[in-house]
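Think of the structure tokens as a kind of shorthand, similar to the way a musician reads notation: each symbol stands for something richer, in this case the local conformation of the backbone. In the example below we present two proteins back to back. Begin with the first one, reading the sequence and then the tokens, and try to describe in your own words what changes along the chain.
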Amino acid sequence: MPGTFLLPFSLTTTNTMPRFLARSLTTATLAAAVLLTACTDTEARARADSLSVALASASAERDSLQGLMQGSTADKDRALAQVVEASKFADDVDAELRKVRGLSSKVGVTKSDESGKTEAAAAQKDILDRLSQMRQRLAARQRQVQAQLDTLKSMRADSSMTATLLADLNGRLATRDKEIAAFQDEVRALQSKNAQLTAEKSVLTDTVKAMDVRENRVFYLVGSRRQLLADKVVTEEGGSRGLLIVKLGKSLVPARSLDETRFTRADRREVLTIPLPRSDRPYRIVSRHDLALIEVAKKEKDGAFRGESIRITDPVKFWAASRYLIIAEK
């Protein structure tokens, strides 16, 4: 009988999850969290949600496989302890056999020695009893070892399957990592495009506002005939010469070129009332604006009017004639 009990297999343990797996999951989870809060585009949010679900599924599979591997490692540790115990038991059996072999020297006696025969018979019985006990213990231990062999074979198959699953999971996570990197580039591109559009929109808004202000900007001036002529806002036209010196019946018309600094600037949407310097004096509109589109305290038959102010009833139509309103004291 051999002196040492050997097992025809090697026992290996499985390490924890690969570093790449943990790193990929951490990177993927952080990337998905950052992108869900920065990205405002509907399609980008939907894609981020899809990636989050896929990563959550992969993480769950990782946790399940890790639990399985930890359980498998514990089973292998218990099996290894039992193997060590079986090896010690085999050594004990060897020691017992050596003792039995030592007793065999006592069974050889001569035929005339009655006491020797008795002693030899007792030694034979002791040897047989010990051998019987050892056979029983060996049979029980063999059954345990066979069960351990079957368990370890199953563990090997499970480990192979687990390794395959882990390799597949790592591949999927690597793919997810690439998708997230590509998605990050897309989001950055969208952010850059949005920033550009925002800047362009701001410029366009300012332009539209400036155009709107310019479109609705109007000017008005109220003054005496002498003042308006002096400021070169109006000129005299028509009339007849009396006594060969003075022209009579001249009318005022707006000058061909108007100086905006002489006028009061206003927004036609906001300024609907224009004050008159003197309510006791008559005034006349020199520019081409329609007298019917204003309200005053009193209108005269010749087109003149009096009051403290004029009120424009329809700004769009009133200012369509000209942006420059000139009112002269009659």
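Once you have a description of the first chain, move to the second and do the same.
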Amino acid sequence: MQHSQASSWKRVLTVSAAALALLLGGCTSTIVNMTADTVAENPSQIYTVTARVKPNQTELVKGSLKVQIVIDGQIFPMSPSALGDGLFEFEYHMPAGRTEATYYLLVNYAAERSNMVIPVEEYSELRTIKLTNRYVYTLESVRGPIGARIAIVGRGFTPQDVVYLDSVPARTVFEGPNAISFSVPAVPAGRAYKVSLNNGTTSQDVGSFRVDGLSLTVSPESLNLTTGGRATITFSLGSPAPEGGLLIDVSTDIPKSIVMPEVVIRAGATNATITVQGGQPGQGTLFVNGAGAGEITLPVSVTGR
């Protein structure tokens, strides 16, 4: 009888993928597959398939539950797991040269319904285990300021890898197959960003990173100019500016009274000095932003000659 049942399932497994997918459309909530679709490759090449199987206990005939996995054209029994009641496991040995395997779970039991005992057969959806030799162990730090260098430790890194904070690329340094690092780009501070690793073909989530503002000071604390007169302003950071430099956003409410260039602190530098010139007489303020340190204000007074 057992031989006949196995032969029957082998015949089922020969149908086309489309037909089998249609056949398996009737899965129920009795089976909850708890196995990840992508798993890290290991030297033993053994991977655990885990599922929670809990038929209706009020109708289950005691001792009738049988849980199996159908994989590689064969049926194997799944064993109760020591991790908890209702959990079943199967240790799958991936054949040499293979990086994935498609399977589904099969559950048989007897149920007592309306004073009758009937056989019940249920099955899960098709799933595929895919191996990866590229994964991340840890993000060295979960927060840091703009320009900070952060390491990522893992496996399978390549020189083509680029780290992104949300959609913003960061300067990425390939340290070796097991380590890379990136410099936190000049993004708005005070919030968390999703860190991902992209090699041009695939993108992999790394974790979450909170960007803190840089310490920024401006000197002098106020400006007194005459029309046509000049003065210097120095912008200083508490740590070196990131790769590509850091643009400091400076605006004013008296644009006709102040003539000034764009402010950029060069990559690796900690300060920048610019020259401003007085225009039409007026009184107002310079508003300084761009390092995530909050807004700094400088009172400005421009008088006629």
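Compare your description with these statements about the second chain. The longest strand covers residues 100-113.
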